[in-house]
Design goal:
The protein is of the alpha/beta class and 117 residues long. Helix content is 15%, strand content 38%. This is Core domain-containing protein.
C-alpha cells in the first residue's frame, strides 16, 4: 500500500523535513539505488520493544510505503500499529545528535529512551 505523506499520516509515521533531509543525505552517501528508509519495531530493550531505522532495498508484502519529498519510508505491517502517528525528527544540537521518535502509542519508556512499551 503506497500513500502520500501529505494525504495520510494517520496510519503511518510522520517524518519532519529535517529528518527527511538527513535521511536523504545519508542515502546519497550509500551510493546505492532503490534503497528506502525502513522503520520498524522489534522485541528487545529493557522496556520490551525497540525502534529500528535502517536503509533497505526490499519491499515486503504488506509494507506501508510513504513518500516524503522523494524519500520512500517503509513500515512493515506488524510495526504499523505501534508506529501509527509516530513523529520522527532529526536533532543536531550541542547536547544531542540523531534521530528521535515521539510515539503517541508508547505507554512508557526506559531511562535510556531506546526502548518502550
Amino acid at each position: 500500500m503506497t500513500v502520500s505523506a501529505d494525504t495520510s499520516t494517520q496510519n503511518g509515521v510522520i517524518l519532519t523535513d529535517a529528518a527527511a533531509e538527513k535521511a536523504k543525505s545519508l542515502l546519497e552517501q550509500q551510493g546505492e539505488e532503490g534503497l528506502a528508509l525502513r522503520v520498524q519495531v522489534q522485541p528487545g530493550g529493557c522496556s520490551g520493544l525497540i525502534y529500528q531505522l535502517y536503509f533497505d532495498d526490499r519491499e515486503v508484502d504488506g509494507d506501508l510505503v510513504q513518500d516524503f519529498n522523494g524519500l520512500n519510508v517503509r513500515v512493515d505491517r506488524m510495526s504499523v500499529p505501534y508506529l501509527s502517528g509516530a513523529k520522527i525528527d532529526f536533532v543536531d544540537t550541542i547536547e544531542k545528535q540523531g534521530f528521535t521518535i515521539d510515539n503517541p502509542n508508547a505507554g512508557g519508556s526506559c531511562a535510556c529512551g531506546d526502548s518502550f512499551h
